[in-house]
Amino acid sequence: MIEAEHLTKRYGAHTAVHDLNFTIEKGVVYGFLGPNGAGKSTTMNMLTGCLGASEGTVRIGGHDIMEEPMAAKKLIGYLPEQPPVYPDMTPEEYLRFVAAAKGIPGREQAGQIAAVMEKTGISGMRHRLIRNLSKGYRQRVGIAQALLGDPQVIILDEPTVGLDPAQIIEIRELIRELGKDHTMILSSHILSEVQAVCDHIMIISHGELAASDTPENLTALFAGKSEIHLLVRGGAEAAGSVLQGLEQAEAWKTEEKEDGILSIAVTPREDADIREAIFFAFADAHLPILEMTHERASLEDVFLELTQEKPEEAPKEKRRRKAKAGGKEADPQ
């Protein structure tokens, strides 16, 4: 549905987006996830043709967004981070204006406007001035304008910023409902939001695509980073001897606490559940386990791993991390 190749945007010496390559498939809800300043809004603006790329191409349904803008833009509906509404209009007046601007034939406008107002839940607000609507309803008006013309792709840039918790839940439900009939692209810096509504996640960090996969697969990539945390009564040397005898214990670190208590973090080999083996091994060594917890990698761990720059990390190691997580860069030989 959408193909982006070598997409790059520079502002003078600053590169906001660098060499993005990805494909958006039909009928999937995509999430562009990244911290503030990662390049998400810049990418959205290039996908919609609101901003020209310094390098690279974007094709919507086979149409180049810069060479065939009319054909390409007919296939997309876009809600920027700030809804482009006119406060002195009513929702109905504003949608009529947008319908005309999109070139929707006059005989079809009334039906389409009624349909998008019903779908976004603003029919009861049709005659109120937009300036008097809550931010949540203004956001719904913005989504309604994106739906006019029945585009195949709906792009929403930070659609829940500034909303209260109840409004956020309502907008998320609306996005899920729209995802049944449209390909959706949702840009956000809020992890829980993307995880709640998206089928596929693209993580952007420092203007680069750090990962692209389903939430489940992204989490599975880091499953080997799960840890077992123990509080054991005993000495570090004795505990180390026990752990050395466990083949499925890949690594561990210990820290001595007060009153002869030892804190131990054990990293098991991939996909290994060694809690029972640990229990019996320490019991046989007469080292009582006072507490045992198992922490698995979460999508939040993946996000932090991929978006937090490590000061000591060399560029080569950074490329390795990206390749592991599904990014396009590979480690050069």
Report the end-to-end length measured between terminal Cα atoms.
Answer: 34 Å
Which CATH first-tier class of the largest domain would you pick? Alpha Beta
**Strands, count:** 14
Strand arrangement, major sheet: 6-7-8-3-9-10
Q: What is the share of helical residues?
A: 25-40%
Are there runs of 5+ residues with pLDDT below 50, and where?
A: 310-321, 328-333
According to CATH, the homologous superfamily of the largest domain is P-loop containing nucleotide triphosphate hydrolases
The SS-based structural class is: alpha/beta
Give an overview in words.
Helix content is 35%, strand content 27%. It is α/β, with parallel strands linked by helices. The chain folds into 2 domains: 2-215, P-loop containing nucleotide triphosphate hydrolases (Rossmann fold); 223-295, Alpha-Beta Plaits, CATH 3.30.70.100. A 6-stranded mixed beta sheet has the order 6-7-8-3-9-10, sandwiched between helices. A 4-stranded antiparallel beta sheet has the order 2-1-4-5. A hairpin with a 4-residue loop joins strand 12 and strand 13 (261-268). Helix 3 (91-101) packs across helix 4 and helix 4 (106-120) packs across helix 5. The two termini are 34 Å apart. The model is unreliable at 310-321 and 328-333 (pLDDT under 50).
Provide the descriptors you would attach to this structure in a database record:
single chain, about 325 residues, alpha/beta, Rossmann fold, Alpha-Beta Plaits, 2 domains, 6-stranded mixed β-sheet, 4-stranded antiparallel β-sheet, 12 helices, 14 strands, elongated, disordered C terminus
In short:
The protein is α/β, with parallel strands linked by helices and 333 residues long.
